[in-house]
Amino acid sequence: MKTIWSHVCLNKKQILCLCIFVMLSAIAQMLLPSLLAEMINRGVADTNVSQIWIYGMVMAGVALASCMVSFFSVKLASNISTDFAAQIRTKVFEKVQNFSAAEMDRFGTASLVTRSTSDITNVQNFLTLLLRVGLLAPMMAMAGLTFSAATGGEVSSVLFVAIPVLLVVLTVIMMISSRYSIRLREKLDQINHLFLESLEGVRVIRAFNKQRYESERFRGVNQDYASTAMTAGRVGSLLMPSISVIFGVTTAAVLGMGSYYVEIKAMEVASLVANSQYISMVLTSVMMLSLVIMMFPTSYACAKRIEEVFLIQPSICDGDYVFEDRPLRNCVEFCNVTFAYPGADEPILKDISFVSKPGEVTAIIGGTGRGKSSIVKLIPRLYDPMFGEIFVDGVNIRSYRKKDLRSIIGYVPQKNVLFSGDIASNLNFGNANGKLSDWQIAAQTACADEFISKKENQYHDSIAQGGTNLSGGQRQRMAIARALMKKPEIYIFDDSFSALDMKTDRQLRQNLKNSIGDATVIMVAQRISSIIDADQILVVDDGQIVGCGKHQDLLESCPLYREIAELQLGKEHL
Questions:
Q1: Per the CB 3.0–4.6 Å rule, which of 82, 245, 270, 491 could disulfide with 40?
Q2: DSSP E strands: which ranges in 367-480?
Q3: Which of 206-210, 355-359, 461-465 reaches the highest mean pLDDT?
Q4: For residues 501, 504, 507 and 513, what is the CA-based torsion angle, rounded to 10 degrees?
Q5: Do 203 and 111 share a structural domain?
Q6: Domain ABC transmembrane type-1 spans what residues (predicted)?
Q7: For 134-151, how does the pLDDT look when each residue is reduced to its tens digit (9 = 90+)?
């Protein structure tokens, strides 16, 4: 909890005003039983109607003032808790933005969504209740005990038995309930994970007619969550009956003892009425506090989950190298790099070494799942290697700030992600100051102008979330155009031509060759035709480079490359 509060700066004036309002509300509520006792003594007992009216008006005024103060206190409490939640949500989002791919894999998308929405909302609701009730209830209880002891004498001794019993019951129920709170949050993560997975794969599910299977999977997880929630609910349902029984027994004991003292004239009726009111307020304040206590286990579990996000230290940290002092430009070098994904049994890359020079195209080809994409993910530091070094412009990439390193890289990932908005806003992801002329040049180079020109609003035509209103080839060309808008020193294409036809592929490669200048290009590809003109081709198999050279050289020196070429181009062509 300390970690969470260290990320929040609340308005101290609002908190001070809230404390004052709560104190005034408690004082006003404590005055009512005393005024009622005075009304009975001076008005009802003496049949003095004017006194009854006077005290009645005073009590009405005090009640109205208490109502107004309570209104402002509730408003302040809501403002404070809402501001708290807004700040925490922003801090969590900013923290997640700095996560490397390893941290993202560790938490998972579904869990991070739950933590930044549902968990923060639960903590916000608890804080609201704590500020509204958690401050008022102790004040009322303490004042009630004081006034009860002053007016009731030995009758108030009933509370010395009732309150400890009530606290014991609350503690037991809270301890049992807290065990289920963390389980519920974990099971909610499972539901969100499965639901998100089903939404992303809905087309595959329908194509294979697996709707019933997925429904059964979701029903099983949902039923598990529901049974845990019902168990937690049954434990929580014991609270109100227990409080009601203790409340009823205490009230009966107070009235029984009070009637005895009234009968022997050791106590006045007005004092008994006032004392019973004070005792009721004490018990009511304990009941109010019990609501806060019952919300605490769930809120605490949510707060711990939020705290985990803040406490995680990103595995990829910034260096302090002065970016402008780089000795080289547009150069990438791998030196004996070995890399394994977190939790993997063995490295996916082993002893990778190569150099990509300015103005050259370095292509990477090989079988599926052999580590081609893993190589290019290491360059912008989405992951860091286990062993070995990667140099960009003659400097180890660990020495750069991540922001500086990525500022010179134009990255087109294997999975093309577009954002909701329009075509222009997606292109400006690569250059925030991009204008129409920049969009046209990038789109023309990426062969995207062909379909953009047919749109009704052209560059201001809408893009759905994830680019679902575009085809696979259109999304690829948009992603390439977005990288071109950045005009980087290093281009990384991770299998970015797979959805293009041969004609568009050839035209796009020719456009790139004419436009990139001295920039370095590192390209992962599956098709020989996409990399046949590359200055350097790396053949990767089982995480190792088994061949390096130009197309014609590899046909003679690398059996794996020749096998791929024969399958794709045909022996006759070779």
A1: 270
A2: 387-392, 395-396, 409-412, 421-422, 462-463
A3: 355-359
A4: -80
A5: yes
A6: 18-298
A7: 777 777 777 776 766 666
Q: Tell me, yes or no, whether 75 lies in a domain.
A: no
Asked if 348 contacts 341 with a C-beta cutoff of 8 angstroms, the reply is: yes
Strand, helix or coil at 345? coil
The pTM (predicted TM-score) of the whole model is 0.69
Mean pLDDT of 379-401: 88
**Which of 143, 131, 128 is CA-nearest to residue 22?**
131
Q: Rounded to the nearest 5°, which phi and psi values hold at 544?
A: -130, 150
DSSP element (H, E) containing 280: helix 269-311
With beta carbons less than 8 A apart as the criterion, state whether 115 and 309 touch: yes
pLDDT at 132: 79
Q: Domain holding 120: CATH number?
A: 1.20.1560.10
- Measured N-to-C along each axis, helices 12-39 and 49-97 cross at an angle, to the nearest 10 degrees, of 160
- Burial (CB < 10 A; 0-12, 13-18, 19+), residue 498, is middle
| CA dist., res. 520 & res. 510, Å (int) | 15
The predicted pLDDT at position 262 comes to 67
Total domains, the chain: 3
**247, 340: one domain:** no
What would the pLDDT profile of 291-334 be if each residue is shown by its tens digit?
Answer: 777 777 778 878 888 888 888 887 788 888 888 888 888 888 89
Please tell me the predicted confidence (pLDDT) of residue 42: 66
Summarised one tens digit per residue, pLDDT across range 12-24 is 788 888 778 877 7
Q: What angle do CA 389, 390, 392 make, to 5 degrees?
A: 145
**Residue that finishes a domain, picked among 447, 469, 484:** 484
d(CA 364, CA 359): 16
Q: 302 and 185 in contact (C-beta within 8 Å)?
A: yes
Question: What percentage of the chain carries pLDDT values higher than 90?
Answer: 0
Q: Which domain holds residue 429?
A: 419-484
Smallest CA-to-CA distance from 521 within 335, 376, 396 is with 376
Distance between CA atoms of residues 542 and 366, nearest Å: 9
Dihedral class, residue 204 (left if φ above 0, else alpha if ψ from -120 to 50, else beta): alpha
Please give the biggest Cα pair distance in the chain.
Answer: 122
Cβ-Cβ contacts under 8 Å for 535 (sequence gap 6 or more): 360, 361, 362, 550
